Automatic annotation (TrEMBL):
Coiled coil: none annotated. This is Elongation factor Ts. Keywords: Cytoplasm, Elongation factor, Protein biosynthesis. The gene is tsf. Residues 80-83 are annotated as: Involved in Mg(2+) ion dislocation from EF-Tu. NCBIfam families: tsf. It is found in: Cytoplasm. It comes from Citricoccus muralis. InterPro entries: EF-Ts_dimer_sf (IPR036402), Transl_elong_EFTs/EF1B (IPR001816), Transl_elong_EFTs/EF1B_dimer (IPR014039), Transl_elong_Ts_CS (IPR018101), UBA-like_sf (IPR009060). GO terms for cellular component: cytoplasm. Belongs to the EF-Ts family.
Amino acid sequence: MANYTAADIKALRERTGAGMMDVKKALDEANGDSDKAIEIIRVKGLKGATKREGRAAVEGLVAAVVKDGTGVMIEVNCETDFVAKNEKFIELGNVVLEQAVSTGAADLEALLASEFNGRTLGEHVVDEGAVLGEKVVVRRIARVEGAFVDAYLHKTSKDLPAQVGVLMAVDADSEAAQTAAHDVAVHTAAFAPTYLSREDVPAETVENERRIADETARAEGKPEQAMAKIVEGRLTGFFKEIVLVDQPFAKDPKQTVGKVLTDAGTAVSGFARFRVGN
């Protein structure tokens, strides 16, 4: 019988995040040697990684931080909520975020290719996924800059890490601007705007929406003389759904987000919103 105790099993589970039976089998194979058992767990996990390549990683976490006027946000995915709340997975999310900040990586490719403890961060993520026994991927990274940046993280379940994250950058750093930035970040988490302003919406998207509004109005038998006004009205409604500054403000729907920002003496210079799996 291998020479190890229940305390050894507990310690190894805490170090690796692996399941009870996997830890016991590894300790048996390693004859109680914890370091060797860790190698066994990693090797077996990596062998299983190819089998997991086609699986969907739709759970996970969002993490964000603001440093020196720059907000950085990352999303890391796994397969199940069981792993999403695992301390090893949450620790990995923090490692990825710290790496994104320290390297200044502008995109996902650069982040994953960056050097981490003698190898790439991408290799480290695969290795950690092997230990956790699931497909684990860094899905995306965002960076925004401004006079003030607010980072807002929202938990959709108290048992899970943050599932929604928003970075909101504004062009002023007054107390009013900071308050507005935070309030608009919270609004953005809930209402999921796609674009900052109407000018940011691709022209083909606007024209397609205009065409749909026109065809729908004609199918409804609307009078020709009112057609232009009806189409523009429906297009305005479309903008209110997808454009941040046109949306009715969550805390006071009688005002638009743009009006709230203007009253605070500021404007949004950039924003990003992540929701795990979306």
